[in-house]
UniProtKB/TrEMBL annotation:
<dbReference type="InterPro" id="IPR007484">
    <property type="entry name" value="Peptidase_M28"/>
</dbReference>
<protein>
    <submittedName>
        <fullName>M20/M25/M40 family metallo-hydrolase</fullName>
    </submittedName>
</protein>
<keyword id="KW-0378">Hydrolase</keyword>
<dbReference type="InterPro" id="IPR045175">
    <property type="entry name" value="M28_fam"/>
</dbReference>
<feature type="domain" description="Peptidase M28">
    <location>
        <begin position="72"/>
        <end position="284"/>
    </location>
</feature>
<keyword id="KW-0732">Signal</keyword>
<dbReference type="Pfam" id="PF04389">
    <property type="entry name" value="Peptidase_M28"/>
</dbReference>
<dbReference type="GO" id="GO:0008235">
    <property type="term" value="F:metalloexopeptidase activity"/>
</dbReference>
<dbReference type="GO" id="GO:0006508">
    <property type="term" value="P:proteolysis"/>
</dbReference>
Amino acid sequence: RDAVTERGVLAHVQALQSVADAEGGTRASGTSGYEESARYVEEQLREAGYEPVRQRFSYWNDWNDEEVQSFNIVADSPGSDAQTVVVGGHLDSVAEGAGINDNATGVAAILETAEWLAESGIEPSNRVRFAFWGGEEDGFYGSNHYVSELTGEQVDSTAVYLNLDMVGSPNGVRFVHDGDGSDSDRGGPKGSDVIEEVFLDYFAQNDLAAEPTSLDGGSDYEAFQDAGIAVGGLFTGDSGIKSDAEVRLHGGTAGREYDPCYHQGCDTLDNVDPTMLREMTAALVFAARAFAVAPPPE
Ligand code: PHE
Ligand code: ZN
Ligand code: ZN
Ligand code: ZN
């Protein structure tokens, strides 16, 4: 398969925008927009040769006082289940909009990586599990449910979790989650430093500026982190404000949000930087390959 292309990743993002357009403008958990997003993801995975499975769960949504039925989608590569590498991101959007940067971009990066792995001819020594979480925007319910269903043995055999949440921010920064905690308040469990290093090495080798960002919660890595699993991943910024120093390294506009449409109706296709999305996807492919064939980080 060719290197990651802008066209390839954008096709997935566009498909999810079309889903939102056809389903009342949102892809929130429990809506038809979520169901249709799931069907798109499942279809793409099947076409690539995977057998996606739905993992159902329900939760009480405090915002509108109702029970929400939702599900995760999980698809496995070949490889020994002695070590599983989980690559995940949330599939649901907020109710206010289509959720394209947040998080159709992460979904697109994961789908591209799944397709790349299937077509690469690489025989993973470790199982790579691609996961699409529901209920993130209501409180990380899908990833919490997934981790809560793992046996102790399955927790132990989960080598790493890589999270993708918002990876095409229009005024973004290439953030890599800070595994060793040396660059921020909070790092990750043992092994998380290796994940950070793999991503930072990739960006350095490709002359792309990147910087660590704290693992202080707010996305689906949290449940894995709390279970003691090595975590890491990519992020390009939400409602935070871009600094002058970041503009010097990454370009863009200082004093403005990384994503001015964060959790709003304007988080549409126009709210994505395609170059950023391609770069982050290529970094994910690199890391997924590294962890698919390597022994797990110690
Ligand atoms: N999880 C947040 C959201 O979906 C965004 C976020 C991503 C926050 C990564 C922290 C780290 O809105
Ligand atoms: Zn998100
Ligand atoms: Zn969000
Ligand atoms: Zn660090």
